[in-house]
Amino acid sequence: MEIPLIFLTFEQRNGILYLDIYLNIREEGDWDIRIQKTFKALSDENRRKILDLLKKGPMTAGEIGEHFPVSGATMSHHLSVLKEAGLILDDRQGKYISYELNTSVVDELIGWVSGLKGESYHE
After folding, report:
1. Domain definitions of the chain by residue range
2. CA distance 30 to 42
3. How far apart are CA 42 and CA 37, in angstroms?
4. What is the pLDDT of residue 10?
5. d(Cα 100, Cα 98) in Å, to the nearest integer?
6. What's the whole-model pTM score?
7. Cα–Cα distance list, 24 to 7, 21, 35, 36, 122 (Å)
8. Closest Cα to residue 106, out of 80, 83, 86, 84?
9. In this structure, are strands 5-13 and 16-24 parallel, antiparallel, or unpaired?
């Protein structure tokens, strides 16, 4: 398997630290596809805000949607991208679906980034 080519850039604007990640994968394995989906999901500001909301605990799509001026279809798309990346989990309760943060994927990502710096990540 070929190693992905990765560029990380950091920039601070208005007191906020921005991380840009450029990933060029030439061969796709399970890890490669998973990390591509994760970075795609994290690239959108609304999806990052959804993850911030879910830090507080599980929420339904309607509860999440109350925090955004977007249509139900757009919110559904954002939730689908996050779910496909493994960043959130869903639990159907009758006619409602509850979403929660999947911290194991976050831990895996932190471990991978720490490895880039030659560090070991332990929770």
Report:
1. 29-116
2. 18
3. 9
4. 63
5. 7
6. 0.69
7. 9, 10, 11, 9, 27
8. 86
9. antiparallel
pLDDT of residue 9: 60
Over 80: is that where the pLDDT of 90 sits? yes
Neighbours of 101 (CB within 10 A): 21
CA distance to 60, 71, 76, 97, 98, per residue, from 94 (Å) = 12, 23, 18, 8, 10
3-state secondary structure the chain: CCCCEEEEEEEEECCEEEEEEEEECCCCCHHHHHHHHHHHHHCCHHHHHHHHHHCCCCEEHHHHHCCCCCCHHHHHHHHHHHHHCCCEEEEEECCEEEEEECHHHHHHHHHHHHHHCCCCCCC
Q: What is the pLDDT of residues 38-88, one digit of tens each?
A: 889 999 999 999 999 999 999 999 999 999 999 989 999 999 999 999 899
In this structure, which CATH number among 1.20.58.90, 3.10.20.30, 1.10.10.10, 1.10.3720.10 belongs to the domain 29-116? 1.10.10.10
What is the CB neighbour count within 10 angstroms for residue 83? 17
